[in-house]
Amino acid sequence: MSYFVYESKKVFYKVTGSGTPVIFLHGDTASSKMFEMLLPLYSEHFKVILIDFLGNGKSERVEKFPNDLWYSQAKQTISLLEYLDLGKVNLVGTSGGAWVAVNVALERPDLVGKVIADSFDGRTLADDFSINLQRERAFAKSNEFSRQFYEWCQGKDWETVVDLNTQALIEFADSKLPLFQKPLETLEVPVLLMGSLEDDMCRKDLLEEYREMSERIPESKIYFFEKGGHPAIGTNAENAAKIIIDYINE
User: Fold this and answer.
1) What is the domain-level CATH number for residue 226?
2) Which entry of 20, 27, 88, 144 is 20 to 30 Å from 189 by CA?
3) In 32-117, which ranges are continuous DSSP H helix?
4) Structural domain of residue 234, as residue ranges?
5) Segment 32-70, tens digit of pLDDT
6) pLDDT in tens, 81-112
7) How many domains does the chain have?
C-alpha cells in the first residue's frame, strides 16, 4: 500500500492504469473503495489515482475533522499532486468530493487539467441542511445496507468516522463558512457539472443551480441524466464513464 504524509499523518493513495492522469475524489462517509467497481471503466484509458482523505478508509485516523472539511481535503489533494509530480491532472469529484475538486482547481490551476464535479449542491447549502443531515445519518446508521456500505468503506470503526463527519458538516453549515475559497469567476480550468434529475440527496433545483454556476465559470458544460440516484457517476456508471472519458479527451 502507498502513503504520503500530510501534516504528519499518513494518507493512503493508489495508482493504476496508464496514460492521462485522473484522480477520483470520494464523498463524505465514503472512501476510495466507492470507485473500485468503476475502475475497469476508466483504467484502460487513464492513469487512475485514488485517495482516502484523512480519517477515512486506509488513511490515518483523526480525533476530529476540521469544519472546513472540503477545503482541508482540497489541500490534501494538492499535496498528493505535488508529491506525484505528474504535471496537470484531471479531477473527478463526486458529492463532497466535487467541492474538493473545484477548490483544488481554484487554488492550484497549474496542477489541474479539467474538473468533473458530480452530484453536489453547488454554491450553497440548504437552510435546513443540518437538520436533514442528522435525520439522514440516523436513518443510515440503522439501515443494514448503509451500515454495510460504511463498514466496507471505513472498516470496523465506521460509526466513529460517520459521527465525526456529521459533526464537522453541522459545524460547517452552522458557521456559514464559504463552500469555495475563491470566486467561481476566477476558475482557470474547464469544468463539467454532472448530475441526475432523480437524485433525492441533492437540492431540488439542482439543474437551475448548475446553470447559474455555469454562467459564472469561464469554461463549463452541464450534463444531466434523466434517471439514476446519488451519485450519478455510480448510478449511471457506464454512460457517465463515456461522458467523462470523452470530456477529458476533447
Assistant:
1) 3.40.50.1820
2) 27
3) 39-42, 69-84, 96-107
4) 2-123+177-249
5) 999 999 999 999 999 999 999 999 999 999 999 999 999
6) 999 999 999 999 999 999 999 999 999 999 99
7) 1
